[in-house]
């Protein structure tokens, strides 16, 4: 497999994971309302990225599956949500939220670097379709990074100091 | 003089038609208590309305030490003598027998009468303990849009530089935060661009989610008088309800709730497609136009028609009306601000004016409206948590300037992050890191979303709640200390309306019992806490309203909201209120901002560098400087996102809540004015006749409106509203029910917010009261006996 192929596959898998991680964190922190809603919104971007990467991957001879099916709001989700509500009154959950935000941020950074690699490779090979994909998707990854960073900045003083 | 007509039946009174470009004729409205004639009035005391955001100037009639009526001020630019129903009747609440007259403290679980020393000492000692043990992050202040400028500024100084907490906000978060945010996003700073006089000149008026007929009755009178005069303006109304505004509109769009961005993007698409744009203006005064063009390229009327459920041809007609306007005035209110993607949508209205070059000229106006009378002051004084004077917390120079004015070190002013908004403060209280919440002049136990949650947060043992109010509100009943406050007519101060008009409101009568002006309460707290500046002098050196005003003037100098050219004396002797900025160079005030380009968006001057239109992530100074080095207006495009809570088989309706013409906020005053209370004594729910028929319901039935959060019971009114939407007025709570502050144990309540969702706009942090999924079921048929008992109100006449 070419270097571009390997990178496409890695990024595709990571975007798939990031969507799932965002949705799982959104459920886990259902009582953190802003986090819950925005995490769900920006998960949509990762889903779209995985879909588009899978489509483009076919041109590069890759068999990428695209995003996962959405889990039905089954037992696990309901359990996470219940746990979230029960724990929502305890200060320790604040720390858990900060750690989730950190992990989501790092995952987005990792994706951003892969987008960067693909952008450079696309320019070097004059692969316009790839460049177009990167131009459409990479800004959204950067927005995921800025968002997680902003949330950490806003919440840390309260959750680390006053709790 | 218009004093004879029943202004409950005719909220807007008689017409005084006028032609474009001519002054709005005066009409003096008057209402006096039964048996009092004008010549019986001993004193007329200058004031303005405190029951909505319009700022209608009036004189308070006093006889024998009591308020006996009100009269509009014909010379004033805002209302030319007119008053709305709430102005005419609402003053009676001042003399209500159930006003709080003594401080209350909680003893063994019950609130008991106390004295000021005991109450204030408890507050000061709890504040000190929390500061020592947990730091300033444990203390929060939640104020209102109904105090005076002098009070907000004092509160802002004591919170920012005394307690040094970041947790300070007003209930303006619920009504006007999106207006401020949209202006910051587009123009770099808060500050209303337009003027009410734009109504006199406009050839087209567009009201976006703004039911002016009910929320600002006098503003609507002005529009009605233009409509009745020669060469009337054309009207566009965007509202899912067939409001009085919609009835007069040339084009009425009733989009599905939560789809404003899709609709506005389609309107912008059409205006760009048909070339109705001002290239010179765009080039000279804006950045970001290209991004808008590409963002809305695919947003055709057909695309939006699908999302908004509005015929594409109607969208095209609306775009034609907007595109053909030569003098366009737009107004925006809660239909945008409290709905999904609030800021993103409000910003698109700004974009409409920017790409059409319709700003800063007579008739070319933009009014991002306020909901409350003094919300403008909450914003400019920083009682909403922002730094006072529209200063930028990310700009060290601005912080240093403020530190110099207050004579403190810059690091004494928390500026390491954005201020904590109200909803987040309640979250911190829920999660346990906030130990004290001081609530002044607002009633979150009725006005915030998801009330069962709010009650449970306020009722926590570990949270020390202070409530400062006129009455034992639902919130006050959950407090640890209750402070009786004086109100409008009982204290002196200034306040500023939605078009930047500053009025002086003077004390007419004494507050009841031991009640004190809010300013005196804040000053008492500051003295007990002994807040000092860096040289050891008192942090707050003023003792009275005029002193606070002078301190604020110094703080406002050189900022967009410059008050340096104003004084109490000038406001007393000038016939009319005066619009800020008012300076030595502009002694008569300023009608319109941005008459000569964009003034406050420069990176060194702007209040905000902006936020991401989806996530709310803050833009860094470096990014802003490279995007907008010359300080032009920023055209920010936004993508449409589906609402966070949509209809489902279990909840097939969309719920929206709103204000109605006879009431304000949580009815603390209007529910105690006999005429206003009688006009709308109890909650109701509206759906369309077709929707009612489909569900086998009819007018007057007692229905239950339920969402995943909770339920209320209300009488059904079928009205002209979109199919699939239910409307509930948000005013009704429990203070006039047997339970006092909550629904009965065995059933649903009547506060609309039992049902609303906890979700807020990621930019403005304004809660979304107009995007929830709901279902409606029958409880009892019209005319059957259950009603008054099951809805718990005990009020008669609320049944069919």
UniProtKB/TrEMBL annotation, chain A:
<protein>
    <submittedName>
        <fullName>Uncharacterized protein</fullName>
    </submittedName>
</protein>
UniProtKB/TrEMBL annotation, chain B:
<keyword id="KW-0004">4Fe-4S</keyword>
<dbReference type="GO" id="GO:0016491">
    <property type="term" value="F:oxidoreductase activity"/>
</dbReference>
<feature type="region of interest" description="Disordered">
    <location>
        <begin position="1"/>
        <end position="21"/>
    </location>
</feature>
<dbReference type="GO" id="GO:0046872">
    <property type="term" value="F:metal ion binding"/>
</dbReference>
<dbReference type="InterPro" id="IPR050123">
    <property type="entry name" value="Prok_molybdopt-oxidoreductase"/>
</dbReference>
<dbReference type="Pfam" id="PF00384">
    <property type="entry name" value="Molybdopterin"/>
</dbReference>
<keyword id="KW-0479">Metal-binding</keyword>
<dbReference type="InterPro" id="IPR006963">
    <property type="entry name" value="Mopterin_OxRdtase_4Fe-4S_dom"/>
</dbReference>
<keyword id="KW-0408">Iron</keyword>
<dbReference type="GO" id="GO:0051539">
    <property type="term" value="F:4 iron, 4 sulfur cluster binding"/>
</dbReference>
<dbReference type="InterPro" id="IPR006656">
    <property type="entry name" value="Mopterin_OxRdtase"/>
</dbReference>
<dbReference type="InterPro" id="IPR009010">
    <property type="entry name" value="Asp_de-COase-like_dom_sf"/>
</dbReference>
<dbReference type="GO" id="GO:0043546">
    <property type="term" value="F:molybdopterin cofactor binding"/>
</dbReference>
<keyword id="KW-0411">Iron-sulfur</keyword>
<protein>
    <submittedName>
        <fullName>Molybdopterin oxidoreductase</fullName>
    </submittedName>
</protein>
<feature type="domain" description="4Fe-4S Mo/W bis-MGD-type">
    <location>
        <begin position="42"/>
        <end position="98"/>
    </location>
</feature>
<dbReference type="InterPro" id="IPR006657">
    <property type="entry name" value="MoPterin_dinucl-bd_dom"/>
</dbReference>
<dbReference type="Pfam" id="PF01568">
    <property type="entry name" value="Molydop_binding"/>
</dbReference>
């Amino acid at each position: 497999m070419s270097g571009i192929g390997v990178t496409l596959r890695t990024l595709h898998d990571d975007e798939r994971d990031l969507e799932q991680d965002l949705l799982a964190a959104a459920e886990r922190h259902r009582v953190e309302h802003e986090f819950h809603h925005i995490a769900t919104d920006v998960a949509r971007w990762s889903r779209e990225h995985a879909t588009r990467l899978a489509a483009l991957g076919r041109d590069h001879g890759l068999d990428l599956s695209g995003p996962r099916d959405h889990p039905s709001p089954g037992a696990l989700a309901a359990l996470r949500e219940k746990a979230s509500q029960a724990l929502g009154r305890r200060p320790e959950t604040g720390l858990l939220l900060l750690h989730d935000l950190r992990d989501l941020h790092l995952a987005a950074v990792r994706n951003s670097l892969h987008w960067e690699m693909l952008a450079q490779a696309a320019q070097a090979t004059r692969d316009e379709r790839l460049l177009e994909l990167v131009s459409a998707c990479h800004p959204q990854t950067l927005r995921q990074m800025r968002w997680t960073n902003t949330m950490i900045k806003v919440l840390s003083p309260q959750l680390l100091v006053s709790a | 003089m218009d004093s004879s007509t029943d202004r409950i039946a005719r909220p807007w009174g008689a017409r005084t038609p006028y032609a474009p470009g001519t002054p709005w004729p005066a009409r003096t409205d008057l209402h006096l208590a039964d048996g009092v004639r004008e010549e019986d009035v001993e004193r007329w005391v200058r004031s303005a309305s405190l029951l909505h955001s319009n700022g209608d100037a009036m004189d308070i009639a006093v006889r024998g030490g009591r308020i006996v009526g009100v009269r509009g001020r014909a010379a004033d630019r805002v209302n030319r003598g007119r008053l709305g129903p709430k102005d005419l009747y609402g003053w009676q609440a001042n003399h209500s027998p159930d006003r709080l007259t003594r401080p209350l403290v909680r003893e063994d679980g019950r609130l008991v009468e106390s004295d000021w020393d005991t109450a204030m000492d408890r507050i000061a000692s709890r504040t000190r303990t929390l500061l020592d043990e947990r730091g300033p992050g444990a203390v929060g202040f939640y104020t209102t849009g109904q105090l005076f400028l002098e009070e907000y500024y004092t509160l802002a100084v004591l919170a920012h530089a005394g307690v040094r907490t970041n947790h300070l906000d007003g209930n303006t978060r619920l009504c006007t935060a999106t207006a401020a945010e949209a202006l910051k996003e587009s123009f770099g700073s808060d500050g209303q661009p337009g003027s009410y006089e734009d109504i006199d000149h406009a050839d087209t008026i567009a009201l976006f989610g703004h039911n002016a007929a009910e929320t600002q009755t006098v503003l609507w009178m002005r529009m009605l008088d233009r409509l009745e005069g020669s060469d009337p303006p054309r009207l566009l109304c965007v509202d899912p309800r067939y409001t009085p505004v919609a009835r007069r509109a040339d084009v009425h769009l009733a989009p599905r709730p939560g789809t404003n961005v899709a609709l506005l993007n389609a309107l912008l698409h059409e205006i760009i497609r048909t070339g109705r744009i001002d290239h010179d203006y765009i080039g000279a005064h804006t950045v970001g136009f290209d991004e808008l063009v590409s963002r809305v390229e695919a947003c055709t009327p057909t695309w939006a028609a699908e999302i908004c459920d509005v015929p594409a041809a109607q969208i095209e007609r609306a775009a034609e009306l907007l595109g053909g306007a030569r003098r366009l005035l737009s107004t925006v209110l809660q239909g945008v601000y409290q709905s999904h993607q609030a800021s993103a949508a409000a910003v698109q209205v700004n974009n409409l004016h920017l790409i059409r070059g319709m700003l800063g000229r007579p008739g070319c106006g933009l009014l991002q409206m306020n909901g409350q009378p003094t919300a403008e002051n909450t914003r400019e004084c920083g009682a909403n948590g922002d730094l006072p004077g529209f200063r930028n917390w990310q700009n060290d120079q601005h912080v240093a300037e403020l530190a110099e004015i207050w004579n403190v070190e810059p690091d004494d002013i928390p500026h390491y992050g954005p201020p904590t908004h109200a909803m987040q403060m309640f979250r911190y209280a829920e999660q346990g890191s906030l130990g004290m919440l001081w609530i002044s002049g607002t009633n979150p136990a009725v006005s915030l979303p998801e009330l069962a949650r709010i009650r449970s947060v306020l009722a926590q043992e570990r949270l020390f709640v202070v409530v400062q109010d006129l009455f034992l509100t639902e919130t006050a009943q959950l407090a640890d200390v209750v402070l009786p406050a004086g109100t409008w007519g009982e204290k002196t101060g200034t306040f500023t309306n939605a078009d930047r008009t500053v009025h002086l409101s003077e004390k007419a009568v004494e507050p009841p019992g031991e009640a004190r002006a809010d300013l005196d309460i804040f000053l008492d707290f500051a003295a007990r806490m002994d807040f000092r500046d860096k040289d050891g002098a008192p942090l707050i050196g003023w003792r009275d309203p005029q002193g606070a005003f002078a301190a604020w003037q110094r703080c406002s100098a050189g900022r967009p909201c410059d008050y340096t050219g104003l004084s109490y004396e000038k406001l007393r002797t000038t016939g009319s209120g005066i619009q800020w900025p008012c300076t030595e160079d502009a002694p008569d005030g300023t009608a319109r901002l941005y008459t000569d380009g964009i003034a406050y968006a420069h990176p060194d001057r702007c209040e905000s560098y902006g936020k991401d239109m989806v996530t709310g992530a803050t833009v860094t100074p470096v990014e802003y400087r490279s995007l907008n080095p010359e300080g032009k207006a920023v055209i920010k495009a936004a993508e449409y996102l589906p609402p966070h809570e949509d209809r489902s088989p279990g909840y097939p309706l969309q719920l929206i809540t709103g204000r109605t013409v006879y009431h304000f906020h949580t009815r603390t005053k209007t529910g105690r004015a006999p005429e206003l209370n009688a006009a709308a004594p109890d909650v109701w729910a509206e759906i369309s006749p077709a929707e009612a028929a489909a569900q086998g319901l009819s007018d007057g039935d007692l229905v239950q409106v339920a969402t995943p959060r909770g339920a209320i019971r209300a009488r059904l009114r079928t009205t002209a509203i979109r199919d699939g939407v239910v409307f509930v007025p948000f005013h009704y709570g429990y203070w006039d029910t047997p339970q006092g502050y909550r629904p009965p144990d065995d059933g649903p309540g009547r506060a609309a917010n039992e049902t609303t969702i906890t979700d807020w706009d990621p930019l403005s942090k304004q809660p979304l009261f107009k995007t929830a999924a709901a279902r409606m079921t029958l409880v009892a048929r019209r005319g059957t006996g259950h009603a008054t008992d099951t809805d718990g109100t005990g009020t008669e006449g609320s049944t069919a």
